[in-house]
Write a structure and sequence with these properties.
190 residues
Amino acid sequence: MIEWLLIPLAYLIGSISSAIIICQIMGLPDPREQGSGNPGATNVMRIGGKKAAAITLLGDLLKGLLPVYAAKLLNAPVELLALTGLSAFFGHLYPMFFGFKGGKGVATSIGVLLGFSYLLGIAFVATWLFMYKVGKISSLSALIASVLSPVYAWFIVGNVIVTGVAVIMMLFLLWRHKSNIRRLLTGQEA
């Protein structure tokens, strides 16, 4: 029964903003006040370079991976794995430590998917990398990988609950990228 405490713990872990903390440590501007205003790896790269962005990306990915992996180590049922992953993801989107204004969730969702199945996470990353190589637009690459993630979940994991989590994360990723989608449709996305 104690393993159900992973759900609120995952939310708290998700609420730790890697972007804000890394920028503070590295003496960079607050990512909420610079660039796109988004506390995520892409914006950190704009304001602080590749090293800061890579550390931010890793931190955000681990926020999704570690809680799900901990639930797996406890032999938690798939329902608990799903709720733990979603809790970490929502902690990133709506962090209690930072006024409930978080990042867009791509890296944290990758971590959650990796926690469910390393092949599922790799499929997302491979799709993102391929689309980025073809189109050179990070947001479009993330959106396409996100839209395909429920399909990957179904064929790789074959579980309705895991597929449902992928659908929920995809819907929120689309919602959080609505300004990017508008710019993509008008040809203004960098």
